[in-house]
Amino acid sequence: MKHSIVSVLIFALLGLVIGYLFFGKIAGEYVSISTLLKPASNELVSLGQKISGIAKVRNNIAICGGIGAVVGIVIRLVKK
Q: Which residue spans traverse the membrane (predicted)?
């Protein structure tokens, strides 16, 4: 059980890193990780993030992390 959780966490983290490398660029520059992790402080900031594409980048990276977690589960189940 412990190895399964570790496997899922490792693959989820790997998915997040790969997602950041693929989708973390806006206008040729990588968005800082702190910008991606901080929630919008108010509606104006939220609107700015939607316009600049940060919300979409954040969603794409999260999807990659989820896919990585699923891959970790599948690999762990196949190994059994």
A: 5-23, 60-78
Does the reported pTM lie above 0.85? no
Give the Cα separation of 66 and 74 in Å (integer): 12
Q: Contact, 49 vs 4, CB < 8 A?
A: no
State pLDDT tens for residues 10-53: 999 999 999 999 999 988 889 888 888 877 777 777 777 777 78
What residue spans define the domains of the chain? Answer: 2-79
Q: Residues with Cβ < 8 Å from 55, sequence gap 6 or more? A: 46, 49
What does the pLDDT read at residue 19?
A: 96
Strand runs labelled E in 1-80: 25-26, 29-30
